[in-house]
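wait is this the right file?? whatever heres the structure
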């Protein structure tokens, strides 16, 4: 059995990165940053860009995989709301590691997957609601699987507390800077987005993480929900300092 790339060896630090949306330049920039700091693990917080329409996702994935090999870095991503879910979910999950390998050195972290680094329990929690759904085509540029299901939530909370969550969506109960005005999106989409945040909030309440990292809202900020620190990272259009964060796991 090959070693679990998420665990062996345990990383002393990781780079967390916001939405990539199949932006090869930004992804490679993050990988160079990780390599330059001697960090071998990048945690990408969804809207990775898996199988984007018009075949661009395949080009992106191949380029990221090549750069991972060159820089000796592994990428682990949670699903966002803009992945091609039928294509992603048809790939098998390794029964030993729980990971879904999508390319050499590139892995998907399925929803509710847990692992332990230096005594701290981490959990992956992908998914979010597409606020721009009206501008997209079902089965082409958005998919119903973007939402957390009741089963996903049950798995996430079923094993008890965690120390850290990497997610795509944010929990409810916090204010996100620059969030779209209520009258700028259809009421049905605003309501669906709020319901999804409530799902994430329920997971936070039940698992009580010290910190939750997420993407999706394209802005870097920090908030507090109960005793959980919530950190949002900006998307690929933002300066690198707003898009990613280096986390020392040994402190």
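ok assuming it is, sequence goes like this
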């Amino acid at each position: 059995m090959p070693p679990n790339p998420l665990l062996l060896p345990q990383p002393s630090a990781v780079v967390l990165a916001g939405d990539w949306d199949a932006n090869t330049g930004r992804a490679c920039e993050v990988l160079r940053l990780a390599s330059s700091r001697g960090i071998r693990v990048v945690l990408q917080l969804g809207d990775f860009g898996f199988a984007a329409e018009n075949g661009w996702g395949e080009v992106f994935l191949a380029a990221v995989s090549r750069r991972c090999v060159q820089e000796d870095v592994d990428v682990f991503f949670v699903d966002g709301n803009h992945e091609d879910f039928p294509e992603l979910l048809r790939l098998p999950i390794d029964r030993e590691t729980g990971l879904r390998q999508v390319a050499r050195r590139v892995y998907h972290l399925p929803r509710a997957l847990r692992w332990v680094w230096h005594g701290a329990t981490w959990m992956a929690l992908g998914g979010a609601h597409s606020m721009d759904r009206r501008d997209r085509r079902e089965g082409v540029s958005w998919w119903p699987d973007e939402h957390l299901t009741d089963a996903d939530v049950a798995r996430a909370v079923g094993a008890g507390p965690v120390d850290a969550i990497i997610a795509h969506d944010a929990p409810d109960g916090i204010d996100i800077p620059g969030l779209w005005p209520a009258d700028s999106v259809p009421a049905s989409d605003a309501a669906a987005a709020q319901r999804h945040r409530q799902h994430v909030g329920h997971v936070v309440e039940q698992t009580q993480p010290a910190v939750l990292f997420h993407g999706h809202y394209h802005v870097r900020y920090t908030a507090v929900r109960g005793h959980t620190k919530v950190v949002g990272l900006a998307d690929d259009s933002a300066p690198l300092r707003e898009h990613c964060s280096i986390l020392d796991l040994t402190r």
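The chain has a mean pLDDT of 95. so i think its the right one actually
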